[in-house]
User: Fold these one by one.
Assistant:
Number 1:
Amino acid sequence: MSDERAGRIADFIEPLRVEPGSTVRLGRDFDPRYKAGLKKRDGVELLQTGVSLLAEYQERLAAQDSHGVLLCLQALDAGGKDGTIRHVMSGVNPQGVRVSSFKVPSAEELDHDYLWRYAQRLPARGEIAIFNRSHYEEVLVVRVHPENLVRQRLPEVEGGRDLWDRRYREINRWERYLTDNGFSVVKIFLNLSKEEQRTRFLKRIDRPEKNWKFSAADVRERRRWDDYQHAFSEMLSATSTKWAPWYVVPADRKWFARICAAAILAHTLMEIDPQYPDVGDAARKDLLATKRDLEREAPEGAAADPYEDRSEKGRSGKGRSGKRRSGKRRG
Ligand code: ATP
Ligand code: MG
């Protein structure tokens, strides 16, 4: 990967990063319609480039097997989390990716500390784990609807300022612990405007094949728009850290949001820069001895090493017939 390309990706995502320690006010600081001067038709090719880049890096991540990546996706309803996952991960090997969606917690989950259920779904080394909603719900929906907190049966439960500050601290430390141990934490907030959410809800109502996506609860949540904007702003200000910064991705244009998400994930993988392992001289010698054994097993008429034969042909445009035995099969 050229440094130039890595630099271009870093520049592209820079305006989306929440500077650690800064105070965010969503409405003032981030425009859901921003598109970096790009046109939708440029978007197709860019996303394709991003997707192939991710495929290559994921393979290297799996081969190196020492680091993992956790991608947290947060958004308001109709923000486009599902579509982003579908498009951005379209090129990667499904064996290396694990997607977990977090809904209202179950009775069993409520019987544990609030980070417990998220810890169960962390990536292994070599894996990318995606959280479709994440531990950040614990300072978002739980904050906007304090009855969720009551269900958590905390000792001395008070929904006051102190509790949220404590949770921000705990989350920051948890993410620090993960990054120190080889797991990068990438956090993306898909920032949708209120008007675009209205349009997307209407589309879900107007088109019968989209009806299943619509839920009356989404409209109830929409009435709490300002409370959510406030909770998001506070959360972004308190939990964008040097080791796990937040990226606010403009989400009114789906095509642009997907490019941004792909670029942010690619940037993280490039920073890890995983390599295919070098097996070392001794192992290489053993491999070559095995190669000779396998070549001796070639049946009459077959190339000693059909793979090498094919690649040679590809390179020179013709076969290496001199190495072949007679065209006839034995017997
Ligand atoms: P989609 O609607 O696209 O299928 P979704 O993520 O909105 O995806 P839903 O089943 O509609 O999925 O909603 C999940 C609900 O669970 C959301 O309203 C969310 O706020 C809620 N939720 C998630 N985590 C928690 C939590 N820790 N405590 C309480 N509610 C939570
Ligand atoms: Mg929903």
Number 2:
Amino acid sequence: MQSEIAPTISAELRQRFASASRVVVLTGAGVSAESGVPTFRGGGNTSVWKGMPFDVISSGQMLERDLPAVWEWFDYRRELMQSVKPNPAHVAIANWQRRFPELTVVTQNIDGLHQKAGSRGVIELHGNIWRARCVTCEMTIDLTEHRRNACVGCGDNLRPDVVLFGEMLPPGAYERAATAASTCELCFVVGTSALVYPAANIPAIAKMGSGYVVEINPEKTPLSSFCDEVLSGKAGDILPVLGDDV
Ligand code: BV8
């Protein structure tokens, strides 16, 4: 039964969903919106911090200039995320792991909610807010278990293990995501404004291969006109229906 909250899913997508083996899901902040994690460009309380736009406070330059300010910003966001839980969108994507022989989850998010929902092998293009990394020896610690004092390895400062604007992505992360996209049959783009690169390249790479690209977002984005199918609505409404429907 087609849920009244989900838009019409085309016969083509139903057929592809039923027969696909290699699937890529690229997610952005919108997939966590229904968990209560503020998005960045929706004007929420993480789009500006102490008068600074988020791509200023979350930049490599700011980290060089004022590490304590960057820690204050990330401590605030970790506090906001303490009690958030995966929503039906994360759970549906985690369930797809059993459905598709090769499912690759690529996320721009740093909240760890895909892993909490049970997804494995998640490619975190922008790192993870629950980890800290030594600025010198790059040793990482889990901030859910340790306080962020000095590095236990070499004693130098720790920084959030998150990719800030102007910084390179984790070695190999983008390449693994691009490789999966280049050979996928289906690529879902869920809850992203598709403004940040190189993550926003992933759907184009899927399209250049044999990927059928499906956007799931309540709003239009720069990607919408390029996608094979756009399902306008919330990820938490649409993703669970997609699976049941076919
Ligand atoms: C790089 C971690 C190579 C931090 C993030 C100058 C110098 C250097 C680089 C650049 C430069 N100028 C431009 C660049 C490239 C730059 C870039 O792309 N800038 C943009 C702004 C133009 N990229 C980089 O810097 C990257 N590195 O290029 O390295 C390099 C290096 C040095 C020199 C040259 C080249 C690094 C980018 C990573 C930045 N870190 N996050 C933190 O979180 O604080 S990015 C940040 O934006 C988040 O990760 C976020 O995920 C990401 C993208 O945003 P979205 O996820 O799309 O979220 P947004 O709020 O925008 O949209 C939410 C969407 O969800 C909306 O469409 C909404 O409609 C929808 N939605 C809402 N509710 C729902 C929903 N959808 C479904 N269901 C719902 N319920």
Number 3:
Amino acid sequence: MTESSGLSNPERRMLRAMLGQPSLTWSLEDIMKACGWTDQAIVVGAGHGLSNKGFVSINELIRRTVKLADKGRQAVSDGLLEARLWRWVGSQEEPTMQKLQASFERHEAGPGVGLLKKLNVQLNGGVFECEDPSKVKTELQSRAMFLGSLPADEEDLSERLLNHFNGRKGLIETTEIRLRSWSLTDEGSLVLASDLEEKKQVAEITPELLQSGEWKDADIRAFDVTLESATPRTGRSHPMQELIERIRRVFLEMGFSELVEDYVQTAGWNMDALFIPQDHPAREMQDTFYLENPKSLELDSDLISKWKSIHEDGGDTGSLGWSGEFSEEVSKRALLRTHTTVNTIQHLAANPDKPCRVFSVDRVFRKEAIDRTHLPEFHQIEGIIMEPGANLQMLVTTLKTFYAKMGYPEVRVRPAYFPYTEPSLEIEVKWKGKWLELGGAGIFRPEVTEPLGITSPVCAWGMGLERLAMLVLGLDDIRQLYISDLEWLRNQPLL
Ligand code: PHE
């Protein structure tokens, strides 16, 4: 009696029903009917509970059902391939291979002749022959009957024909279903039905119950922690966000401070300040997103005249400039920044004589057609070091240290060209035995630094974040990063 006192109500009801016919093996339907339940899950749950307490044993039977597959259904309506061929053989005065090939499609004639040969229908000088046609007929009949009897329990079928059809493609298929049944154990049959009255139990604690104090006397249902339940999914950062955080940590560790700035900028800061000529192809409409509203933004006239003279003839820098005429209108055009170098240069202009180490990980925009490796909106990892004595060696070492901390110890640089740096270089990282280009870097030219009054040399770099993300996450399509594929997101490793 004491053993049964801890039972839940569904367990009580199920056990009581089973005690009504103690020797029966109960199917799901039997129990649902006897208990008045419509939900299978209750039976399964109560059954588990009773089995854990030793009152009930659960039997599991696997039933294998053989059904017709696509080709099998076709065979039932049109006849098996070998049967159709055999009928054709019987209809011909001289059934030759040649005629057969004219009457049947190639994909049927080939395999069909093979099937006939196995039935002892031989080719003799190109003509089909058979010693015992009645045997062929019987076999074809039993094959047809076999298919006609489907679906059927696997164990009720002829093993020989089952093997035969399992060896042929697409005719039959087998499905498995698990059938559970429940029966009383000896211990279970000793429980007295009178001890199994259903109790009034509280499954949910409501504010009313708490306020009235009724909870003190309530019989509160225990959780059955042995039951299966759905695994809760917790939230997590997007791998891209995690990567950005990791990059931030690495630069902060290396003594850099972060710069976060607007992405609406003028062509003046985005390009002219960086000595990118006004007729540079990257400034065209098809490469850069210019804004309609505002179409242009104000710029300090002093600055414009400095850029004008640098661009037209090099100003006082000793450079020859680009020659041609510098347009103030072009300079004022508003755009979405095409690189984050626009922000580091402004930081330098605002602090021309304060040595600094600054980085940013931020969004940039270029009119790119979307494909496996391009997006119109992506991120750059930008940075500068401005201090007396800053030099190329320092730049390369900084980048190597950064990538080593990110887990890529093999880094190399190659000469490159940017209008705003000299020398300029490209950064490459070795991944799976291949060198991958991840960004550009260099020392800002005097045409860039002098008009802004910057006195010390500036090491600068700008690298692709998505490229790095593809490496880190092992992707070969950049779009995967932005399509919100939850299954993929859940399965990404923590970075
Ligand atoms: N701004 C360059 C780009 O967008 C990268 C770069 C930054 C190159 C700084 C040199 C110095 O590709």
Number 4:
Amino acid sequence: MKINVIGLGYIGLPTALIMAANGLDIVGTDINKDIVNKLNNGELSFEENGLENLYKKALDKKIKFSTEYIATNIYLITVPTPYDEESKKIDSIYVERAVEMVLDICNDNSIIIIESTVSPGTIDRKIRPIVSKSNKNINIVHAPERIIPGNMVYELENNSRTIGADSLEIANEIKDIYSTFCNAEIVLTDIKTAEMTKVVENTYRDINIAFANELAKICSSDKLDVYEIINIANKHPRVNILSPGPGVGGHCISVDPWFLVGDYPELTKLIKSAREVNDSMPSHVLLRVKEIMQENNISAMGKVGLYGLSYKENVDDIRESPTLQLLKVIDKDTKTQIKVYDPFVSKKSVDNQIHDFEDFIDSVDIIVIMTAHDHIKENIDKIKDKIILDTRNICSFEGVYKL
Ligand code: SAJ
């Protein structure tokens, strides 16, 4: 059985590799020639724990990478689903285009599995009409991905999965495919339930992070230590507060809750507030930076350095990262002065990016820890003489500023 995996990004590539490594015949397709060329030349397109090893295993089996879609019976779509900034509704154009391309070449009775996160009802409203127009007999399945960057390979094998389909027969057929690499429970349901479940999972996490962030603001206003308070509160058997931070980044948690706000505007007061709290964190960090500058008689923004550009620790993914969000809310002049360093991000991504850690340290007086990479934990002694604003609570030096 041959499977065409469409979209070789953060989800599609690990999925294609794990499927091939477990004996399935895979063609990975991406419209981006650079990605396909890299993969065909033995190079991965991004860094991820365990991915190199999986790539080697996959190459020993049956896998090809191409910019072309191929005619087969099973297609797996893992393309991005952004949201419209104005209406907050999902923008499913990439999924729609991928489905159209599949329909141009696929055989009758093919199965199209959509792994991309979509808001409840998107498949009914946007995808089914496209499929109907093709006059082909096609089965649609929604199998939303659940893997977390930084631990993707482990989670592909060990996270439970949801498969939404129109019939139990098709759901079971797809379950057999996922069972080749997934050792956890595979739950079968209908498509809309699967769509809603995925968005709910990420919204749940967003709301809980927002609670921690709101607590950080309350504690900061009253000179209380939010981390000590969370630590004590979490000793209660039914309390589990997450960690405050400089904001919520990534392409999932900072996006998916908006789908619900866009579709159910009158019913999503809590979800919307949580989004707003998390979106306000980069401005809160900036406010803290300004207070700290004043307290230490520093006036030049050029003396401030942001450590970390990726949205979370030990990954190179900078999408919607709190650092980018922060740079968005400051004026142009300040933006060109403030320094940024990230050991995972070698490509020039912002104005004043410094590529050498020692140069970065030498050029600033204040370091704002935005991302808790292991790299900074291992090199923490090198910044002990700096003024530090630690938004991730990883630094225990005397006098370190916190959120
Ligand atoms: N964050 C905090 N405090 C916390 C936890 C996270 O500020 O206590 C921040 C992170 O630093 C990051 C953001 O939130 O900026 C999101 O990071 P994350 O690690 O919570 O999640 P993602 O976006 O990397 O992955 C999520 C996961 N969803 C859930 O945990 C419910 C993952 O399982 C999904 O597959 C993924 O979204 C996705 O693709 O939808």
